[in-house]
Amino acid sequence: MLIRLLALVAEHKTALTTDGLAAHLGIQARMVEPLLRTLTDFGYLAAAGQGCSSRACAGCRQHRSCGIAPAARLWTLTPKGQAAARNQNQHLT
Amino acid sequence: MARQASSPQPVHSALQTEATEEPRIPVVALAGSPNVGKSSIFNPLTGLSQHVGNWPGKTVEQKTGVCTAGPQRLQIVDLPGTYSLTANSAEEQVTRDYILRERPEVVVAVVNAANLERTLYLVSELLELPSPLVVALNMIDVAASNGIHIEPNVLQSALGVPVVPLVASRSEGITDLLQAIESLLCGSFAYAPVQPNLGAETERLLARVEALIGDAVPPSYPKRWFSLKLLEGDQEASTILHDRIDAERWDQLQTILRANEDAVLSIASARYEWIGRMVRAAVVRPRADIITLTERLDRVATHTWAGPLLLIGILALVFWAVFQLSGPLVTLLEIGIGWASDWLRRVLVGAPAWLVEVLTEGVLGGAGTVLTLLPVLAIFFAAIAFLEDVGYLARGAFIADRLMHHMGLHGKSFLPLFLGFGCNVPAVLGTRILDSQRDRLLTLLLAPMVPCAGRIVVVVFVAGALFGQQGALVIMGLLILSLAMLVLSGALLNRLLFRGAQPALILELPLYHWPNWKTIGLYTWQRVRDFVTRAGTVILGLSVVIWALAALPSGQMETSYLAGLGRLLAPVGNLLGLDWRMMVALLASLVAKEQTLATLAVLTATEEASLSAVLPQMLSPAAGIAFLIVQMLFVPCVATLTAIRQESGSWRWTLFSIAHLATLSFGVAILAYQAAGLLGVGV
């Protein structure tokens, strides 16, 4: 399930929503969030889009007024995630 | 497909202490994810006997207490909230160390009945630990109100452990929970936990690891669990083992782990498949074909072609609303500034002429004119905050992601770029959230091309003054041009300098909801306050400097230092139909975009007419469009350039950004003006 998820993200050309992922994987939409958390915990995905609450912005002078709160939670594949997806795709071909 | 524990767990083994042979109070640990209601169970169980402190060596809160409500006294320990036992956080570390080392007589796993998928992962891990488990199915009322019906008996049979439905917030089911704990303590419940089946391949791998590490596993850790953690890449397990195993076996183990570094994916997948089976067995949900409002709206908002059209429509609506609503308010403020200027002239009769001029033309003419634009900014920021608050902006990011891929970027870059609509400085600083240097560099070169609020203010003002009611269309056209240039530049830079492609990203779209007016008001207020602060400091100061440069040395503007500088720019200005004052105003925008208007107000000041009345006399429609194009695409303000230098760590890229934007802005504007001349339109 998790390997399929990684492979799906790696193959996809544009953004996937969590609902779209659930449909692709044939699982309940509410199951996706824990899957993403687990993949993040194990270093396959990186969470981003935390806006001014992220560590990257912590020391920034504009921290308080730089604008819009995070519009959405989003995740991207880490190099480890990309490698795992590549291995899976090679395995399948 | 589930794995039953090899033998029933010894429940009573730890009930007596070796030293005294006195029966000790059985310990019950409460485990569960954050906000699942553990405290609501802990409080009625322990009443006033609670003790709050910290876990040894950690800043994680420890809560313990004694329960006297059941047939026997129980020591209750509230463990920190965790979703799993991966030891990624202090909370997870405390929870698993406590259960493994202290071996509580019973662990109560509190799960959210309304969201079992989210909370059963921890249960799947707790089942592998030696302490017997009770599952407390909390928030059963919330689940029912969501149309979710759960069969506790079915879940109990599937898990092989006691399952107790609860509404802890109303203390409902607490007695049943105590009875379930008691049934484990006295051995009346046939405890037979059904653990996830990890699959034949993983089981073979586990057996190899277990055989290899043998007796090196510390006695407090179950060998199977310890081996699983090694396969999951657990650092703590690895460190513990390293000190207890010989070098040869350590090397063999590392070879196995390296060859199976993604085994964790199979293990976690097996757990989630187990969760799926448990949920399918015990949970009845509302019909899946009932479509929510969010799903209905998203069918349009995220549709392949309807989505982008809607995004363009919404942006057009925002700028139309900004233009239409702010117009009368700006006119009122202009009249107010005019009155203030007249009043100052009357009050300062007899004062030195230069002082009267500096206050009326420098201060009120410059910074005052910029302040008249407050309604434009307030409405713009309120509109953006509204879109964010109702949940639409996330859909915008989703749609924009497709454009981003043409530039070799993904939607992650959309977030810093979107900040650019407010101010380009945070947009540049926001590129820190991007992982690779390539992404950061490409995004920060594109960030100044997003029209910031300062540019939008100038464009709204000038377009309104020159084109009246058609101004909204002009603004929309400029916005589309600006974003088209951004995409084109991104695609070219990606093709020529930053070759690369990005995998997709995953976006969680929030539910649509009614706007929170307080949040919108607070956001708008913060931005307006920042703008007023800037108008009262940087813009005011520079307005006075520009007034002085326009007056010195002879008191005549046509022979002033500023006119001399402006005439140096005349050759470029001629290609655009702009006189030296317009060129100086463009240059002044390097300090702050709003400074363009402040500078024009100072340079065109008359007692009879405001800037909006003077502009149509100075500019033909074609020259006005050329001026607006340069304004939209020109080199950003100094603050943004400083941020680009800081974030890129390179003067070379900073100068590249300046050259790129100067060439692009003047190039496109000259092309537009000259084309209008050739066609005889608006010249």
Using brief descriptors, characterize the structure shown.
heterodimer, A: Arc Repressor Mutant, subunit A, two-stranded antiparallel ribbon, 3 strands, globular, B: 683 residues, Rossmann fold, 12 strands, 8% strand, elongated
Can you walk through the features of this model?
The complex is a heterodimer of chains A (93) and B (683). With 93 residues, chain A is mainly α. Chain A has a single domain, classed as Arc Repressor Mutant, subunit A (Orthogonal Bundle). Helix content of chain A is 48%, strand content 12%. Chain A has four helices and three strands; from the N terminus they run H-E-H-H-E-E-H. Chain A has helices at 2-11, 18-25, 29-41, 79-92; strands spanning 16-17, 45-48, 73-77. A two-stranded antiparallel ribbon of chain A has the order 2-3. In chain A, helix 1 (2-11) packs across helix 4 (79-92) and helix 2 (18-25) packs across helix 3. The longest helix of chain A has 14 residues, at 79-92. Mean pLDDT of chain B is 82; it is low at 5-20. Chain B contains 30 helices and twelve strands. In chain B, the strands form three sheets. A seven-stranded mixed sheet of chain B has the order 3-4-5-2-6-7-9, with helices on both faces. In chain B, strands 1-10 form a two-stranded antiparallel sheet. The longest helix of chain B has 42 residues, at 306-347. In chain B, helix 13 packs antiparallel against helix 15 (374-390) and helix 22 (517-551) packs parallel to helix 26 (595-603). Chain B has 683 residues and is of the alpha/beta class. Chain B has three domains: 2-196, Rossmann fold; 200-284, Orthogonal Bundle (Helix Hairpins); 306-679, no CATH class. Classes of the chains: A mainly alpha (93), B alpha/beta (683). Chains A and B meet through helix 1, strand 1, helix 2, helix 3 and strand 2 of A and helix 3, helix 11, helix 15, helix 16 and helix 17 of B. Strand 3 of chain A pairs antiparallel with strand 12 (505-508) of chain B.
